[in-house]
Amino acid sequence: MKLLIATNNDKKVREFHRILEPYGVECVSLKEAGIRQEIEETGTTFEENSRIKAQTICDLTGLPAVADDSGLSVDCLDGAPGVYSARYAGENATDDENVDKLLAALQDVPDEGRTARFVSVITIVFPDGRSFHTRGECVGKIAHQRIGYNGFGYDPIFQVGEGRSFASIPPEEKDAMSHRGKALRLFVEELKKYL
After folding, report:
1. Which of 24, 42, 64, 107 is most buried by its number of CB atoms within 10 A?
2. Domain 2-194 has CATH 3.65.10.10
3. pTM value?
């Protein structure tokens, strides 16, 4: 099965490919489909933003569209950056700028207060109006400094073990435990009911 992935984030598309390919799902990015649509995320929840993106691309193309909205929720910051994770340090902030702002916000917070979770919500919208979403979470804590060079976004500071971050473990290991990996595996199971 071929699915159109409603994102312009190449690194996110690679994760989709890696996780869904073994299930026989071919992922086509917006770029590969020749779509240059920027989608404004106006929702206040991961579910709303994921739905907005999938619906926009489905309406535009007439094809089933899949979208992910994901982010980092830090407990001591009342869930921030949350749905604003990609633009935490400003509208066009880089990953490094977002990480730097978060590290600064947690500068005086001890280890036990640095608990956090990554959240991913995957939504598919079909041209006939059917849709569903799945949600995955991964609990960890925020490191005091960057650890590792893999991944993207907040991966270098999201600790999943002593001295280990998402950016310091192999991609396959990350996929097995990550929020997106969990949401996509649930997604595949749910998708079978719709086919």
Report:
1. 64
2. no
3. 0.93
